[in-house]
Amino acid sequence: MQFDLNILNGASGKVRVILQGQSGGDDGGIAITSSKITLSSSTGQQLYNGSLDNISGGRQIYMAGVLKGTGANSGSQVQVQMEVRIDQSGQVTGRIAAGSTNPAGNANESNV
Fold this sequence. Notes:
This protein is mostly beta strands.
């Protein structure tokens, strides 16, 4: 499952989430075996990437992880929390919050 999302109503940018797994049985769910998330600028420059270490839900999915900076952000980390909803047509909407892993850092929240 892959989500390519635009960040709106806050810092502009793009989010790509890739979840891989296997069918989870009769309920139609998926048992996630690996994940990848990339935060990019609105021009497509990759800023942070990593994997998600907490994923739960069905049509409403909660995800969280700590991402590592790339390029000019190398050496920095950002903590990300996402909530996405998948409607009956397959359209994905949600919210993302990202902040410094430094305890004094601030979190910013936007819609995707």
